[in-house]
Specification:
Layout (H helix, E strand, L loop, with lengths): L28 H9 L27 H13 L10 H13 L75 E2 H13 L5 E5 L4 H5 L19 E6 L4 E2 L2 E2 L7 H7 L10 H12 L4 E2 L8 E2 L15 E4 L11 E2 L2 H4 L27 H9 L17 E5 L5 E3 L4 E7 L14 E8 L2 E8 L13 H8 L4 E4 L3 E12 L5 E13 L4 E9 L13 E5 L5 E7 L2 E2 L1 E4 L5 H6 L4 E9 L4 E4 L7 H4 L4 E8 L10 E4 L9 H10 L13 H4 L8 H4 L2 E6 L6 H7 L8 H12 L4 H4 L10 E5 L1 H10 L1
Helix pairs in contact: 16-17
Length: 750
C-alpha cells in the first residue's frame, strides 16, 4: 500500500468549512478528520443494510463511497436523514459521540504517573534496559526510529533489521492516537456500551521493564500501548453469566504470575459480544494481518499474546498516514479541530419534497406564496413593501432553521390566536457568511413555552438562562460521584469515591448548576489536575467540567436578571447571550391561522425573512431597490415607481398598481424578476406603522379611525426596539432584504 500523508489545512478544507459529499469530489484535511471520526462506522459481515460488506473505513483524505456509506450508517443510528452527506446536523452528530460515549485521555496515563514509588527492575534478561526512568503519563519520546528486531538475527544468521513493521515500532509517541479514541466512541454506540473502564492505556518502556514473566527471565516488550492501543472492560467490571468474575487482569504477565488457573475461567460473554461487534459491524480485524485497519486482540486462551478473554483490546497500530499531531494528551485536544458550523442550508418548512434546497423543487416554494392573496416579496397584498414571504402550510407543521446560527431575539409562549394577524411568537437567528453577518426571521410560531420540559432545544436553553448555568464549549460527558469497590493487586478491595462518566451535553447546551466551582480532586483522587467542576442542579451527585487539564470546556453563565419575568409576560427578548442552533434544527411549528377575516381565508402560514447589514449578493441577476425613507414604506405610488424604475414590474395603466393587479401577481410574467430584488429598506419590525400609514397620501381615502386602528394593530407585532438592548441586532434599522428562497437556493448551489 503506497505511503500516505495527512493533507495540509487550507481555508477551503478547514474542518467544518464546507459540506462534504461524494459529488462534487471532496478531498483534503476536513475529509481526513471526518474519516478519523468515522473509523467505527465501516462494515464487516454486518453492513447495517447500507453499502457493501467488509468495507472498513480508511483515513485517506478522499471522500469515497466507503466514507459515504459510513456517514449513512451514523445518520441511521442517530435518526438523521440518510443522505451520506456531511452537513451541519451530521457534523454535530459525529462530534457529539464524545459527549455521549466518554473516552477520557486522562484515564490512558501510564502507571508511572500514579505510581508512588519506583520499584527496582528485577528482569534477568541478558538485554540492557536503556533509557529507563518513569514517565509523567505519556512516555518520554524514547526510541524514535527504533524497532524491536533491530540487530536481531535468526539461527541461520539471517538479519532481521530490515523488518520495520509498525507492530515492531518501539517509539514512545507523545500521547494517544486520537483515531483510537474516536474508534472506541463509535464502537460504544454500535455495540451499545454505556461506559467503559480503561485497564490498559499508555504503557511506556520503563513500565515494560517493571513487568516480567513468571521466571523473571524477560521483561514485557509490547509496543502496542505506546499511544496506539486500549484495553477496556464494559461498565467497570466484566461479568461471566451475570456474575462478577474472580480475576481482573491488566496484562499477560499478571496471568502468568497467577499461573494457569485463569485459563479455566469462562470468557466474559459481554466482552465477546463487543469483540464480535467490532469486527462484524465496524470492520475491524482480528490481529494485524491487513495494513490500514484497526485491530482487535483475540480471546482464545491458546493464542499467542495479547489475549483478552475478560476485556477488549483495540489498537490502531496498522493505521497508515499517522501524523504527529494525531497524538494528544488531553481530552480537549482529542476533540480538535473544533467544529464551528458548516454552511449547510435547509428549507424552513417541508412542502412535500424535503428540506434540501439542492434537491427540493424551489418552484414549489416560489409559487406557494405567489398564488395566495398576499405574503409575496418584496410587495405585499396591501401594496406596501413586504420584506419576507409567507409559506402556507398546515398549523403544526415543523419549522426548521435554514442555516447554523444563534438565537439573538425571540418571543415564546403567547397564545397563537391572541392577535388578529397571526401569532406574535417569533425567533430571529444570526448567521455567518464567511466573516459577514446575515439574519433569518421566523414569525407566527406556535405557542410553545420556554421551559425545562420543552422539546424544542432553543426554548429549553432560553429557560436555563433564568438560572445559573454552564454553557458547554466542548462536547462533554457528565460525571456522577459514586462509591465503588476498587480492587487491589492482592485481590482485596476498598471503597473509593469515583467520578463515573455518564451521557453528557454537546457544544452549545446550557446546563443548570448550583453552588461554586469545585476542584474535582476533592471528589475523586484520580480526577485530572488543573480542573474545575460545578454541581448540576436537580441531579444527585452529578457534575460538569468547565475546565479540564487547564483547558476551558465550559463557560459559567450567571442567570439573566429579569429574564423569567419577560418570558412569563410573553415579552420580546433581546439576548446578550446567544443560543446556538444547528442547521435544520426544529425551531417550533407553524401557529394557528390568523383570525383576521382576509388572512384567515388563506389559512395558516409562516412568515420567513432574510436580511443582512450589507449587500451580500451582487452582480447579474440581483437588482438593488433603495427604499430607505420610512415615510414612504406605505406609499403605494412611490413603491410602484421604484419597482417600475428597476423594470421589476410591467408598466400598468397610469403607473398605478391596483388591487386587482396585485392579486394577479401569481400570473405576472415579470414576477420571477421580483424574486431577485434586493430591497434596502427599514425593517418592518422597527417602524411606527400608525405614523407611516398616516403619512401615505395614497391611503388618505381611509377613515382616520380605521387607519389608526390598523396602525395600532400592526405596531403590536413590532419587536425591534425591545430586542435592541440585547446588543446583537444590526447597528442600523435599514438593512438589505432578500427573497428567502432565492437567497437559500443561491447559497446552496454556490
Amino acid at each position: 500500500m503506497p505511503p500516505r500523508t495527512r493533507p495540509d489545512v487550507t481555508d477551503e478544507t478547514k474542518y467544518g468549512a464546507r459540506v462534504l459529499r461524494l459529488l462534487p469530489k471532496c478531498e483534503g484535511f476536513d475529509v481526513w478528520e471526518v474519516q478519523m471520526r468515522l473509523l467505527a462506522w465501516g462494515s464487516g459481515t454486518d453492513n447495517d443494510e447500507i453499502g457493501s460488506f467488509m468495507d472498513p473505513v480508511r483515513v485517506t483524505g478522499i471522500f469515497d463511497t466507503t466514507t459515504r456509506d459510513a456517514v449513512k450508517r451514523l445518520q441511521k443510528a442517530y435518526k438523521l436523514p440518510i443522505t451520506g452527506v456531511v452537513d451541519d446536523p451530521t457534523f454535530r452528530a459525529i462530534n457529539g459521540q464524545a459527549a455521549h460515549f466518554a473516552v477520557l485521555v486522562h484515564d490512558f496515563r501510564c502507571p508511572c504517573a500514579t505510581r508512588k514509588d519506583d520499584p527496582a527492575i528485577v528482569c534477568r534478561c541478558i538485554e540492557d534496559h536503556p533509557e529507563k526512568g518513569k514517565c509523567e503519563g505519556f512516555g518520554k519520546k524514547r526510541f524514535a526510529g527504533k524497532f524491536l528486531l533491530d540487530g536481531k538475527k535468526l539461527a541461520d544468521d539471517t538479519d532481521l533489521s530490515s523488518e520495520k513493521l509498525d507492530v515492531y515500532d518501539m517509539e514512545e509517541h507523545d500521547g494517544v492516537d486520537k483515531a483510537l479514541l474516536w474508534a472506541v466512541r463509535g464502537l460504544m454506540k454500535r455495540a451499545e456500551i454505556d461506559r467503559i473502564s480503561i485497564i490498559a492505556g499508555y504503557r511506556c518502556w520503563h513500565d515494560n521493564y517493571l513487568h516480567t514473566d513468571l521466571r523473571r527471565w524477560s521483561h514485557r516488550k509490547t509496543t502496542l500501548n505506546l499511544g496506539k492501543a486500549i484495553e477496556f472492560q464494559h461498565g467497570g467490571r466484566c461479568t461471566r453469566h451475570g456474575e462478577e468474575i474472580e480475576y481482573e487482569f491488566t496484562d499477560t504477565n499478571e496471568r502468568n504470575e497467577i499461573g494457569d488457573d485463569w485459563k479455566t475461567k469462562a470468557n466474559c460473554t459481554r466482552c465477546e459480544e463487543i469483540r464480535l461487534a467490532a469486527m462484524a459491524k465496524c470492520g475491524f480485524q482480528l490481529r494485524w494481518q491487513e495494513p490500514d485497519r484497526l485491530s482487535v486482540a483475540e480471546s482464545d486462551k491458546k493464542s499467542p499474546p495479547p489475549v483478552t478473554p475478560f476485556s477488549v483490546q483495540l489498537d490502531t497500530v496498522r493505521r497508515l498516514g499517522r501524523h504527529k499531531e494525531d497524538f494528544v494528551k488531553t481530552y480537549f485536544d482529542s476533540l480538535q479541530p473544533a467544529y464551528e458550523g458548516a454552511p449547510s442550508m435547509f428549507l424552513p418548512v417541508d412542502l412535500g419534497s424535503g428540506l434540501d434546497p439542492r434537491i427540493a423543487s424551489s418552484q414549489d416554494y416560489f409559487v406557494n406564496p405567489e398564488k395566495k392573496q398576499g405574503g409575496w416579496f418584496p410587495l405585499g397584498g396591501s401594496r406596501t413593501w413586504h420584506t419576507g414571504v409567507h409559506l402556507y402550510a398546515p398549523a403544526g407543521d415543523a419549522v426548521h432553521a435554514i442555516a447554523p446560527g444563534e438565537v439573538i431575539a425571540c418571543r415564546a409562549g403567547e397564545g397563537d390566536s391572541a392577535f388578529p394577524y397571526g401569532s406574535r411568537n417569533f425567533i430571529l437567528l444570526r448567521h455567518k457568511l464567511k466573516t459577514k453577518n446575515w439574519y433569518s426571521l421566523y414569525m407566527h410560531l406556535d405557542a410553545g413555552k420556554a421551559a425545562a420540559t420543552s422539546l424544542i432545544t432553543w426554548r429549553q436553553r432560553l429557560h436555563v438562562q433564568t438560572l445559573d448555568a454552564v454553557e458547554v464549549i466542548a462536547d462533554m460527558p457528565l460525571f456522577v460521584k459514586k462509591e465503588v469497590d476498587e480492587y487491589k493487586e492482592d485481590g482485596t478491595s476498598e471503597k473509593k469515591n469515583r467520578l463515573i462518566p455518564a451521557k453528557g451535553h454537546v457544544c452549545g447546551d446550557w446546563v443548570p448548576t448550583e453552588g461554586d466551582a469545585l476542584d474535582p480532586l476533592t471528589l475523586d483522587t484520580r480526577a485530572p489536575k488543573d480542573s474545575l467542576v460545578f454541581k448540576v442542579a436537580g441531579k444527585a451527585d452529578t457534575y460538569i467540567y468547565t475546565k479540564m487539564e487547564n483547558k476551558v470546556v465550559g463557560e459559567r453563565r450567571l442567570k439573566t436578571a429579569g429574564l423569567d419575568t419577560k418570558i412569563a409576560a410573553y415579552n420580546t427578548i433581546g439576548l446578550d447571550k446567544p443560543i446556538k442552533v444547528a442547521a435544520g434544527e426544529k425551531l417550533g411549528t407553524i401557529g394557528a391561522a390568523p383570525t383576521n377575516l382576509t388572512l384567515n381565508a388563506e389559512g395558516s402560514f409562516l412568515h420567513v425573512e432574510v436580511f443582512a447589514e450589507e449587500q451580500l449578493l451582487t452582480g447579474d441577476g440581483w437588482t438593488l431597490v433603495e427604499a430607505t425613507d420610512p415615510a414612504k414604506a406605505t406609499d403605494r405610488k412611490a413603491i410602484t415607481e421604484a419597482l417600475l424604475a428597476k423594470k421589476l414590474l410591467a408598466a400598468y395603466d397610469d403607473s398605478v398598481l391596483l388591487d386587482a393587479d396585485v392579486h394577479a401577481a401569481g400570473a405576472d410574467p415579470n414576477n420571477f424578476l421580483l424574486r431577485s430584488a434586493v430591497l434596502k429598506s427599514p425593517t418592518a419590525w422597527s417602524m411606527d406603522w400608525k405614523a407611516a400609514l398616516a403619512a401615505a397620501t395614497p391611503l388618505s381615502f381611509l377613515k382616520v379611525v380605521d387607519r389608526d386602528k390598523l396602525g395600532d394593530d400592526f405596531n403590536k407585532y413590532s419587536w425591534w426596539a425591545e430586542a435592541k438592548p440585547g446588543g446583537l441586532l444590526p447597528a442600523s434599522e435599514v438593512v438589505f432584504h432578500y427573497h428567502p428562497i432565492a437567497f437559500l437556493v443561491q447559497l446552496a448551489h454556490s
